[in-house]
User: Fold this.
Amino acid sequence: MGPVAHSLAALAALAGLPVGLAGLALRPAWRVGLAERCGRRPGNPPGAIWVHGASVGEIRAAAALMDRLRESGENVVASTMTPTGRDLLGRIRPQVPCALAPLDHPWIVEAALRRVRPSALVLVETELWPSWIAAAGRHRVPVVVVSGRISDRSFPRYRRIGRWLRPILEGIAAIGARSAADAERFLALGASSERVQVTGDLKLEPPEERAGLAEDLKSRLGQVPLIVAGSTHEGEERELLETLAGVEAAGLRASLVLAPRHPERFRAAEALARNAGRAVRRRSRLGLRPLAEGEVLLLDSMGELPGLYACAAVAFVGGSLVPAGGHNLLEPILEGQPVLFGPHTENAREAADLALRTGAGRRVANGADLARTAIEALRDPASWRARAEAGRRALEQHRGTAERSAKLITDARDRSRRER
Assistant:
């Protein structure tokens, strides 16, 4: 860092000090992970590939990329902007050290890079932090963007600041864009054509294998059309029970599968269904007879929801009628079933856009709208299920994204080593 940069950094730190101290005093949440935000990163193997994603959605999507890198013998560390993203990776990939990202201040990112000493810095989507990228360049750490995106809303804004954005893009060794349109936008903003390629969207990559279903569960599902509601939250089960009642009032047959998102809510969901006059069968105590018309199957097991989507007549993904951000909308589509979801899909925006664009999904405004759409699907099951095919084909275009992204990263890292 030169003298001018040192001076600017010092002035910025002094100017922001009163605000920072006041924030720490008044907002306890700011104190969470403060040492990590100031560059502390314990337990990191030197030479690892550092993968950074903004929050839960990006970290979840990057998990498959981390798997590919580790399978090829690479050490991987991670960072994210939010404690929820850090905690998520700790649960799903405990073998990958993860901390909160350093604040984008020259002194702090310098300290973090000295501690980690990564062989490459990977930024998921559009995490273009100027001080971090500049510091990586000074440490000869190649920066790679994967699943790179520039939205319709962001593109005009980026063009207006093109003079300042161009040096940032010049500091990036390789960009893996999620689509041809995103690649064109990176080029229009000044990225070098030799460094940009389309690798796909990590958030939309389908799993390698289709889900199966245990024989005992499959044999107990019976012949009644199923409304399968996955990852539900408090407030949604009531709407789904009313949807089942609305379906019956329309003269149609159905049973309901409820899969609460959190296991601690199994008992509450069961009580709610019983209070609504429904017979409830728990997956863990299924018994021998098939599921009967009007009954509720409470899925209190793990890993069986995708297989049940494949057997559904109507599939709904929860966390979306209530403001929880939505969950995995792709599972039903991959199992050949269109997906219904509510207005709250902030955590699954890309999947929601794909579902709506291809016709493989329908957004419902509320519980009454959910009931109307379920009745429509049950009255014309063949045309309803046909809607999922376009979505499934669109998802197949993203198969191999993690593999292509991993190769982009290691190629950029190896090229950087040769050029030193």
Q: What stands out?
A: The longest strand covers residues 226-232.
